[in-house]
Design a protein that fits this description.
There is one protein chain. The chain is α/β, with parallel strands linked by helices. The protein has two domains: about 260 residues, Ribonuclease Z/Hydroxyacylglutathione hydrolase-like (Metallo-beta-lactamase, Chain A, 4-Layer Sandwich), CATH 3.60.15; about 40 residues, no CATH class. Helix 9 packs across helix 10. The model has no long low-confidence stretch (mean pLDDT about 95).
Length: about 300
């Protein structure tokens, strides 16, 4: 059985909250690990509504320092301390994320019950920023008005699964199992080989979720997000306002659809809608002209990465 890999949408708005939408925030779960991706205003409220325990978050990934993606962070951190958190919290983001948080805490004379470790994302087109057992996280540089990153969450692990009975009947030593998982044949005596395919079967495919926050239409990101099982791409405007999107370094729904098609994604979620739109159903219709398997990201809904 595949382990849990899912994303819960907490906020899909841009720039400012509306009656229908809150600013950007998501929860990504990979097995027992839970991550918060961006932290706009209202994040704590949405987490409470969904029954997400604050102290279960291992790390936070901030895309950039515009208010609709980070202004909920100082309050969330203060609440963690009120909950007597003791486990270290890891925060990933662009330069300045530590300064912003520490300034608010300093002015409010807030003393935390836990340690924060800040990880500044390398200024590079693409970089691996987390490499842990079972998963990896990558940062993709996006083209926005300020330094901004998208994040890719991908399962990691062996390419093959062990056929235990076959290994035992062929006296394969336990210390060789890891090499089998990575595809090696077993040489039980000089020149005598048992093929890997007779001792293993293919492991479950590694699933991939890509979160592409604020960005102008930028095909250069396609190689990094290729074959995402689920792609979340900002779509601040409809294509009738393409000029406005370009001016503000944002994308349209049509452009998000093009990116998903070119990246050979499995499914596209649209979000980060401008507050000028009370009804966003037209976004889905527009993106589907380029990429049929498109949906509007619904706040409060959990999507399984398949």
């Amino acid at each position: 059985m595949a382990r849990t890999f899912e994303v819960t949408i907490l906020g899909t708005g841009s720039a400012k909250p509306t009656k229908q939408r809150l600013p950007s925030a998501q929860i990504v779960r990979m097995g027992p690990k839970q991550f918060l991706v961006d932290c706009g205003e209202g994040t704590q409220l949405q987490m409470m509504r969904k029954g997400i325990k604050f102290n279960n978050i291992q790390a936070i990934f901030i895309s950039h320092l515009h208010g609709d993606h980070i202004l909920g962070l100082p309050g969330y951190i203060s609440t963690l301390s009120l909950h007597n958190r003791t486990k270290k919290l890891h925060i990933y983001g662009p330069p300045g994320v530590e300064d912003l948080v520490q300034l608010v805490l300093k002015i409010g004379r807030t003393h935390l019950s836990f340690e924060i470790e800040y990880h500044i994302v390398p200024k590079a087109p693409f970089s691996q920023i987390v490499d842990e057992f079972g998963y990896s996280v990558y940062a993709v540089a996006l083209k926005h008005r300020i330094e901004c990153y998208g994040y890719i969450f991908e399962e990691a692990g062996p390419e093959r699964s062990i056929l235990k009975e076959a290994c035992e009947s062929n006296n394969v030593p336990l210390h060789f199992y890891e090499k089998l998982r990575m595809g090696e044949d077993f040489e039980y005596s000089p020149g005598q080989i048992i093929k890997n395919k007779d001792l293993t079967i293919p492991a479950s495919p590694h699933r991939k979720y890509s979160y592409m926050s604020d960005t102008i239409y930028d095909p250069s990101i396609v190689p990094y997000i290729r074959q995402s099982d689920l792609l979340y791409h900002e779509s601040t405007f409809l294509h009738a306002l393409e000029a406005r999107a370009k001016e503000t370094f944002h994308s349209t729904a049509k452009q998000a659809g093009i990116i998903a098609r070119e990246a050979d994604a499995n499914e596209l979620l649209l979000g980060h809608f401008s507050s000028r739109y009370s009804d966003v159903s037209a976004f889905e219709e527009e993106a589907k002209t380029e990429f049929p398997n498109t949906s509007i990201a619904q706040e409060g809904q959990t999507y399984t990465i398949k």
